[in-house]
Specification:
Alpha-lytic protease prodomain-like, 4 strands, disordered C terminus, single chain, alpha+beta, four-stranded mixed β-sheet, Alpha-Beta Plaits
Length: about 300
């Protein structure tokens, strides 16, 4: 059995996250005060999303710092999964915030309060600028880290919320339709739900050790079987430790004259180049072990392992 343990670099920037956290937290307080003073639920809704932004960013920073801790005898893979727990937590919080905003919007549609549109417009415009700056800072990290992606999506949702508040403020100013404030607040809550659901699904897939969505197990199986010296494979598993850190384990039955070292080298190189999998554990067998026979020769039995 041989293992390769090369890891791709972390995509998140702790300095960028801290910078956006400072911007978001500062402006969140301004929106809360402005929402109360100007009577705007849409502003308060945007501030609520900014609160989840601040929480997401704070947890993202904590996840990066905790993730740097080395592996030990209790956590042999280290603390990489912490960022996935953070992403799942942020998704759940977003669902709860959206539910609250929808409920409050319904109550206000029944009895619309007075809204001071000029103050609402000024704060929403400043909020839009803060969101755009935050999105630009987090954009690169969101492509390689699910944790940062969660924070990026929340800032992105806030950007849409700020635009909605600006539109509502202008419309209320010219038409007097105060109910637009509650309607925009509800729209912000509904708009973020599908993206939050996708984030939660990605996090749960990693926590359940599912195959990464960017990979197809059948393709990996066929690529392995096509390598010289590989007779058959079984007990093939592919999963992610965290964003971008994929792992693979497999039992390989070699043909009679094949070299173990050559097969190990071919597999490690192939899965690294074609599938970006660099954490690989391979068991070479001359005949299929009992694990394969017990499952009728299936390539994908359960997660128990028997080594000879």
């Amino acid at each position: 059995m041989s293992a390769g343990h090369s890891h791709s670099p972390q995509g998140a920037s702790e300095k960028s996250l801290l910078l956006v956290l400072g911007l978001t937290s500062t402006f969140m307080m301004a929106e809360v005060v402005g929402g109360v003073i100007f009577g705007s639920l849409a502003l308060i809704s945007d501030a609520a999303h900014m609160l989840t932004d601040a929480a997401a960013l704070a947890v993202a920073v904590a996840a990066i710092r905790i993730g740097k801790r080395p592996a030990d005898h209790r956590r042999t893979f280290g603390y990489y999964r912490f960022e996935i727990l953070a992403a799942a937590f942020n998704a759940v919080v977003l669902f709860l915030v959206a539910a609250y905003i929808l409920y409050e919007a319904y109550q206000r549609l029944r009895t619309p309060p007075e809204v001071q549109t000029l103050g609402m417009l000024a704060i929403a415009s400043l909020g839009l600028m803060v969101n755009l700056v935050g999105m630009q800072i987090l954009r690169a990290g969101s492509k390689s880290s699910l944790n940062v992606k969660g924070a990026y999506l929340e800032v992105w949702a806030d950007m849409l919320g700020s635009i909605g508040v600006i539109v509502a403020a202008a419309a209320i100013y010219f038409t007097g339709w105060v109910w637009l404030d509650s309607l925009v607040a509800a729209a912000i809550g509904i708009w973020v739900l599908p993206r939050t659901w996708r984030l939660l699904k990605e996090a749960l897939n990693i926590l359940l050790e599912g195959v990464p969505p960017t990979l197809a197990l059948d393709d990996i199986e066929q690529a392995l079987l096509a390598l010289p010296g590989v007779g058959e494979i079984h007990d093939l598993h592919v999963w992610s430790l965290t964003s971008g850190k994929h792992s693979l384990t497999v039992h390989v039955v070699r043909v009679e004259d094949a070299s173990d070292e050559a097969i190990l080298s071919e597999i490690r190189n192939m899965v690294a180049i074609r599938f970006s999998i660099r954490h690989v554990t391979i068991q070479i067998e001359r005949v299929a072990c009992e694990l394969a026979r017990d499952h009728g020769g299936s390539h994908f039995p359960g997660h128990s392992h028997e080594h000879r």
